[in-house]
């Protein structure tokens, strides 16, 4: 038996079809089927029930698959550890970044980031947090720039920055003359939120709930910019991370009491071979003067 045989078994279990599994493994169907048959003979078990149109695992096959998956995962870890001595962050690095950070962080840092890491080709992909973690686990992205949430407990985390949440109101809103507002005072306001799946929305709802503030369901947007456009029309108020609080016509930003923050981090797999490079990138980002100035003076 060999690792390729295990990969073939895992592919057939995933696709429930020998031809599709063979295509995914870039081998011919006879090769894949023959190797799995040899593995079954060597182990003395039948892994797949081939008597129906859709290939299914036998009871023995189901038990073996869990161990096969573990072996393949540990092999991946071994390879990543063996590669950990390579030069950090050279070549292409795929970066997942959540939509409530990407439009505000990248314009501030991207040019100088490319200059500072000139041997790295960064590729940025906007995704929500759940999608990012799935992509990290699958190896489709290398690192992620996200807000720190409990789901990150099993990943390697490097701190970037903390930013306050501010309240965006129209210049025509009764609160517009204020510079600060207590969270509980927002209970009479129509609070606009992002759609489900945005961790920013979940955090905002949590601190609203803790203060007894009800959230409006009249509109849920896909982006902060859409919500701000509605705020400018005096069609509600919304919460905005400080990095996004640039000057906009018709909008004022108010600080909140008690202060609410999010912690932005870089996450990667714990056995990613270039963690030293990730740490270096995180240190560079967190000390970037443009970012610090924006977080300090954007409101």
| pLDDT < 50 runs, ≥5 residues | none
The CATH class name of the largest domain reads Alpha Beta
CATH topology of the largest domain: D-Maltodextrin-Binding Protein, domain 2
Q: Using only CA atoms, what is the Rg?
A: 25 Å
Q: Tell me the span between the first and last alpha carbons.
A: 63 Å
Number of strands: 12
- What structural class do helix, strand and pairing data support? alpha/beta
Q: What fraction of the residues are assigned to beta strands by DSSP?
A: 15-25%
Percent of residues in helices: 40-55%
N-to-C series of helices and strands: HHHEEHEHEHEEEEHEHEEEHH
- Identify the CATH architecture of the largest domain: 3-Layer(aba) Sandwich
Largest sheet: 10 strands, mixed
The whole-number mean of residue pLDDT values reads 88
Name given to the CATH homologous superfamily of the largest domain: Periplasmic binding protein-like II
* Number of separate structural domains: 3
Principal-axes shape call: elongated
> Count of helical segments?
10
Please sum up the structure shown.
With 299 residues, the chain is α/β, with parallel strands linked by helices.
Q: Any overview of this molecule?
A:
With 299 residues, this protein is an alpha/beta fold. The protein has three domains: 3-84, Orthogonal Bundle (Arc Repressor Mutant, subunit A); 89-159 and 263-297, D-Maltodextrin-Binding Protein, domain 2 (3-Layer(aba) Sandwich); 162-262, 3-Layer(aba) Sandwich (D-Maltodextrin-Binding Protein, domain 2). It has ten helices and twelve strands. The protein has helices at 3-15, 18-25, 29-43, 59-82, 102-116, 129-138, 199-210, 224-232, 275-286, 289-297; strands spanning 48-49, 56-57, 91-97, 120-126, 143-147, 156-170, 180-182, 191-194, 220-221, 237-241, 251-257, 261-268. The strands form two sheets. Strands 3, 4, 5, 6, 7, 8, 9, 10, 11 and 12 form a ten-stranded mixed beta sheet that branches. It is elongated. The mean pLDDT is 88.
């Amino acid at each position: 038996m060999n690792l390729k045989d295990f990969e073939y078994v895992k592919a057939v279990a995933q696709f429930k079809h020998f031809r599709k599994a063979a295509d995914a493994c870039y081998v011919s169907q006879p090769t894949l089927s023959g190797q799995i048959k040899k593995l079954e003979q060597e182990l003395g078990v039948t892994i797949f029930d081939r008597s129906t149109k859709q290939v299914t695992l036998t009871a023995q096959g189901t038990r073996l698959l869990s161990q096969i998956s573990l072996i393949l995962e540990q092999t991946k870890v071994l390879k990543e550890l063996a590669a950990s001595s390579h030069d950090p962050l050279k070549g292409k690095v795929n970066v997942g970044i959540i939509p409530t950070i990407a439009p505000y962080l990248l314009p501030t840092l991207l040019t100088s980031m490319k200059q500072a890491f000139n041997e790295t080709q960064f590729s940025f992909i906007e995704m929500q947090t759940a999608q990012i973690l799935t992509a990290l686990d699958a190896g489709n992205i290398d690192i992620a720039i996200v807000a720190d949430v409990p789901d990150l407990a099993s990943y390697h985390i490097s701190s970037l920055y903390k930013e306050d949440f501010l309240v965006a109101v129209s210049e025509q809103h009764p609160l517009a003359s204020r510079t600060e507002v207590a969270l509980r005072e927002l209970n009479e306001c129509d609070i606009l939120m992002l759609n489900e799946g945005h961790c920013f929305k979940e955090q905002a709802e949590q601190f609203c709930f803790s203060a007894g503030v009800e959230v409006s369901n009249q509109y849920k947007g896909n982006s902060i910019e859409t919500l701000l456009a509605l705020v400018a029309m005096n069609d509600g108020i919304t919460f905005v991370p400080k990095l996004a609080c640039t000057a906009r016509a018709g909008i004022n930003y108010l600080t909140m009491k008690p202060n609410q923050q999010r912690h932005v981090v870089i996450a990667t797999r714990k056995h990613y071979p270039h963690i030293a490079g990730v740490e270096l990138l995180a240190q560079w980002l967190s000390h970037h003067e443009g970012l610090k100035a924006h977080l300090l003076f954007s409101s």
